[in-house]
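FORM 7B: Structural annotation worksheet

SECTION A. Query
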Amino acid sequence: MANRSVERKIKNAIEDIVYLIAGFLIAYGTYKILGIILQTPIPVVSVLSNSMIPSIYPGDAVVIYGTDEIKVGDIIVFDAAKKGCIVNGRLITQPIIHRVIKINPDGSFETKGDNNPVQIEGGGCEHNITKEYIFGKVVLKFPLIGWPRKILLDVFNI
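SECTION B. Predicted structure
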């Protein structure tokens, strides 16, 4: 009898591990397929800051569509690290989600967070954002779904 109990526990543990691996693979595959469909390497982003309140709140998740058709008023997501965005002396490593407030004559964009009184000065963040830094524009918002990622970043810096 003891052998059957041990065998059952081992079998259950193996099944749990297989299901866990399958879940991660399905989630990863879904994310990659979404990226192909939406034409962007990061199709879903968790909102981490207060800069876009009241339009988007920390802990929301946004869906991004990669497009060249960006106009004033669109909310875009861009690669702050690749652009070399520095705020308070540190490089911003997470994507920035801000609203386009102006299109420059050279086709680059000026942005600002809805909750920010002015653009971030210095550090290269919100001025002259060229298309090479843009992941896409926000097309859909899911309230609260981004909280697990926000907590991991806030608590463990993951």
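SECTION C. Observations
The longest strand covers residues 134-142. The radius of gyration is 20 Å.

SECTION D. Sign-off
Analyst initials: ____
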